[in-house]
TrEMBL record, chain A:
SUPFAM superfamilies per UniProt: Tetrahydrobiopterin biosynthesis enzymes-like
Coiled coil: none
One Pfam family of this chain: GTP_cyclohydroI
Natural source organism: Dissostichus eleginoides (Patagonian toothfish)
GO CC annotation terms, alphabetical: cytoplasm
NCBIfam families, per database record: folE, PRK09347.1-2, PRK09347.1-3
Descriptive protein name: GTP cyclohydrolase 1
Pathway: Cofactor biosynthesis; 7,8-dihydroneopterin triphosphate biosynthesis; 7,8-dihydroneopterin triphosphate from GTP: step 1/1
Gene Ontology BP annotations: tetrahydrobiopterin biosynthetic process; tetrahydrofolate biosynthetic process
GTP cyclohydrolase I domain segment(s): 55-230
Family per record: Belongs to the GTP cyclohydrolase I family.
Automatic annotation (TrEMBL), chain B:
The protein's name in its UniProt record: GTP cyclohydrolase 1
Record InterPro entries: GTP-CH-I_C/QueF, GTP-CH-I_N, GTP_CycHdrlase_I, GTP_CycHdrlase_I_CS, GTP_CycHdrlase_I_dom
Principal cellular location given in the protein's record: cytoplasm
Residue span of region Disordered: 1-69
NCBIfam families with a match to the protein in the record: folE, PRK09347.1-2, PRK09347.1-3
PANTHER family, per database record: GTP CYCLOHYDROLASE 1, GTP CYCLOHYDROLASE I
Keywords, ordered alphabetically: Allosteric enzyme, Cytoplasm, GTP-binding, Hydrolase, Metal-binding, Nucleotide-binding, Nucleus, Tetrahydrobiopterin biosynthesis, Zinc
Biased segments, Basic and acidic residues type: 55-65
Lineage: Eukaryota, Metazoa, Chordata, Craniata, Vertebrata
Keyword Iron in record: no
Any GO BP annotation: tetrahydrobiopterin biosynthetic process
Polar residues: compositionally biased ranges: 1-11
Localization annotation: Cytoplasm; Nucleus
Catalyzed reactions per annotation: GTP + H2O = 7,8-dihydroneopterin 3'-triphosphate + formate + H(+)
Length: 234, 253
């Protein structure tokens, strides 16, 4: 799930789920690890039915933290928090096919295309705390260009999940690669992790930078340099 | 509008603490501000101040032992949440997440474990100083009580001592106690101001908080650059516009 690559673990997981009748949660692990074609781990209409369980869990959390769940400010908080969490993980609903299908155009362009400073918000899968920052995407088309906002939508699909920044970067790059078959794709993410800022080491100004270079960006240093220069400039 | 405190871990009994203010020092809206009278120094009154004084003396609602005892139930709740979101709690990245998330949440609400009196007791000094003291750009991290999503920003505090000054880091510690809770920015600002007033009885206190609410940035309206600014002015900061101006100018520079 979420593109976790270890096939062995997934087999064990599938067995566990089958034995415990969670078959509705099963994902076919043999499909592409980046995105499941025509199968998502969460159907949109299931969100509504899962809300009561989430609400109950949040009510329990509030109580265990020592708060008074009957005070005015907290009365509807379990519901709001459950819906907020579902929104923040809505990427599980969506697939690349759904959003890209119409917006790939044949264009005789083979120069670099960069969309930079795309705001990204995701949730750290280890602490369930947000991390956010900016994504810079560059690709060199191979006769096919994609609508520009679709790059941002691809970012949204993969970021609105429980993520690890390294995996997010790779998923975005591989997603674009599979959709367009370009000559090369480069993705750079610079983010601030609240799990490091608000707790733990508490380093306010720290930023984590990850990048994925595919195709000609990986092989040709000059192309990579051009991308990095253009995406850095103010 | 009286609320009761939950002083026992996990207990559903509600102890009515009389006219006291509530969990999280939530000040009843009916309470008169310490600087309500036009020419009275703050916190000089006695009997009518009881609800506000309680926030200084409020009981802890949580102890370190409570934290340890509630960890398993918190972790179980988080496991339910992971499943409810359609994730697989058994995959490698999520195996220990319920425990990490539970500990993180307890850290984000550690303000419930602390009392002002513990933090401040030693650091009030008699000093013949009656000019403004400002500590600004104090980084603040809190949790929105409506969506359980972080709020972060900066706090600027200024006060005019009345023969008593406070150790500077104690101002930041007061911010920590009140911000590490489930909060509403307006209440947080007021609690900080009232706590300083009650501790020092200064001539005036001003607190300004400028924060970004992730509940507005990551979801809902999704306005990335929006900031919320709240302020509380007590005592001479409230009455004298020049003092307030000086404070606001100095925190901007």
């Amino acid at each position: 799930m979420n593109g976790h690559c270890n096939v062995k673990v997934n087999d064990t997981v599938e067995e566990f789920h089958r034995n415990n009748s969670f078959s509705d949660l099963l994902i076919d692990s043999k499909k592409s690890v980046v995105h499941r074609k025509h199968e998502t781990s969460r159907k949109k209409d299931e969100d509504q039915s899962r809300l009561p369980a989430l609400e109950a869990a949040y009510t329990s959390i509030l109580r265990e933290l020592g708060e008074d769940t009957d005070r005015q400010g907290l009365l509807r908080t379990p519901l709001r928090a459950a819906k907020a969490m579902q929104f923040l993980t809505k990427g599980y609903h969506e697939t690349i096919e759904d959003i890209l299908n119409n917006a790939i155009f044949d264009e005789d362009h083979d120069e670099m295309v960069i969309v930079k400073n795309i705001d990204v918000f995701s949730l750290c899968e280890h602490h369930l705390v947000p991390f956010f920052g900016k994504v810079h995407i560059g690709y060199i088309p191979n006769k096919k260009v994609v609508g520009l906002s679709k790059l941002a939508r691809i970012v949204e699909i993969f970021s609105r999940r429980l993520q690890v920044q390294e995996r997010l970067t790779k998923q975005i790059a591989v997603g674009i690669s599979e959709a367009l078959q370009p000559k090369g794709v480069a993705v750079v993410i610079e983010a601030s992790h609240m799990c490091m800022v608000m707790r733990g080491v508490q380093k306010m100004n720290s930023r984590t930078v990850t990048s994925t270079m595919l195709g000609v960006y990986l092989e040709d240093p000059k192309t990579r340099e051009e991308f990095l220069t253009l995406s850095r400039s103010a | 509008m009286e609320h009761s405190k939950q002083t026992q871990f996990g207990s559903s009994d509600k102890k009515d603490a009389g006219t006291s203010s509530v969990v999280n020092g939530h000040c009843d809206g009916m309470v008169k501000r310490p600087a309500g009278g036009p020419s009275q120094p703050p916190a000089a009154e006695s009997g009518s101040q009881r609800p506000v004084m309680e926030s200084w003396r409020e009981d802890r609602t949580r102890s370190v032992e409570d934290n340890e005892m509630s960890l398993p139930s918190l972790a179980a709740a988080y496991t339910t949440i992971l499943r409810g979101l359609g994730e697989d709690p058994q995959r490698q990245g999520l195996l220990k997440t319920p425990w990490r998330a539970a500990t993180a949440m307890q850290f984000f609400t550690k303000g419930y474990q602390e009392k002002i009196i513990d933090v401040l007791n030693d650091a009030i000094f008699d000093e013949d100083h009656d000019e403004m003291v400002i500590v600004k750009d104090i980084d603040m991290f809190s949790m929105c009580e409506h969506h359980l999503v972080p709020i972060f920003g900066r706090v600027h505090i200024g006060y005019l001592p009345n023969k008593r000054v406070l150790g500077l880091s104690k101002l930041a510690r007061i911010v920590e106690i009140y911000s590490r809770r489930l909060q509403v920015q307006e209440r947080l600002t007021k609690q900080i101001a009232v706590a300083i007033t009650e501790a020092l009885q200064p001539t005036g206190v001003g607190v300004v908080i400028e924060a970004t609410h992730m509940c507005m940035v990551m979801r809902g309206v999704q306005k990335m650059n929006s900031k919320t600014v709240t302020s509380t002015m007590l005592g001479v900061f409230r009455e004298d516009p020049k003092t307030r101006d000086e404070f606001l100018t100095l925190i901007r520079s």
